[in-house]
Amino acid sequence: MADQATERTTVMASPRQCFDAAADFERYPEWATDVKQVRVLSRDDDGLATDVEFRVSAMARSTTYTLRYYYGSNPLRMAWRLQHGDATRRLDGSYEFLPAEGIPDATEVVYSLGVDLAVPLPGFLARRAEARIVSTALDDLKAYVEAGVIS
Question: How far are the Cα atoms of 8, 14, 26, 28, 48 from residue 107, in angstroms, in the given order?
């Protein structure tokens, strides 16, 4: 799965609310379908998580990986890179939270993901798995934020 998948959705909430939900890693098990456990290992000077360990269910098994997060100069963008994982060689991506054009108090969320599994899959299966991860992540985030849990 060496390709990069990118998908967009509109969320009826502010970019800040969307960012805050995505950056609140400890709550992922409450709303992210495949995430079973999260542990924040380190934070930056602003209190944002920089190293985060995840345990997720994937392809009928449990897998663990650690991501390093980068926030850069744009406070409504977050990117990550795989530090180590038991089933992945590459897992990097980003969320960008942009004001939705023409829709007040709405956000266009852009999610990009690149995955390379340790166990090779045929190309069509790899692309299907990557697309599922991206669409599930966006659908879960949208449902969570629009439910009004984040203020």
Answer: 10, 6, 23, 20, 21
